[in-house]
Amino acid sequence: MGGVAASAGNTRADTGAMVDAIIDGGCTGGDARRYGVTIGLGSFSTGIRAEGSGRDPSTGEAVTIPAAKAVKFTVARVFNDAVNA
To answer: Are 7 and 36 part of one and the same domain?
Structure first.
């Protein structure tokens, strides 16, 4: 956060508040089923995770894991290239 604040000429507190506002806006703004895109970083979307099976670690008993909606994140190519450079 400090590097972003310094490059933008803001304080860490102001930069933190801006980041929080962006995240809050993406989570609560409008229809929650829409895609959220952060330019240069990646995009968020929702998907459906199918029902599966697993084991209770304390008893070893087989359990059914119910189907659920899940949040997916796809890294932007620019960010991925920068990390792997």
So the answer is: no
